[in-house]
Design brief:
about 90 residues; alpha+beta; about 25% helix; globular
């Protein structure tokens, strides 16, 4: 079973209020490594038109982005409100 098959088993209840956000999008342009794009296991961070774009809807709530964004500390990370976010069925 590959990672996509395993993630398919999990359930997401998406809140309209993001629990994670990029504080200053312009600061991402100054980041040389752009680690968030390569380390997020859910691939919530992407490059579009030279800018880092974040989509919280598929977030696994692992916290990788808040740890890896150490150059500019540009991620505001909170757990989702009660009843929202991911529910793991296995693990």
């Amino acid at each position: 079973m590959n990672i996509d098959d395993k993630l398919f088993l999990d359930r997401y209840v998406v809140d309209e209020t993001p629990h994670i956000k990029i504080i200053d999008p312009d600061a991402c342009g100054l980041c040389k490594k752009k680690q968030c794009i390569y380390t997020c296991p859910a691939q919530c961070y992407k490059m579009e038109d030279g800018k880092v774009i974040f989509s919280y809807e598929g977030c696994l709530e692992c916290g990788t982005c808040r740890i890896i964004c150490n150059e500019h500390k540009n991620i505001e990370w909170n757990y989702p409100r009660g009843g929202f976010g991911i529910s793991y069925k296995y693990g």
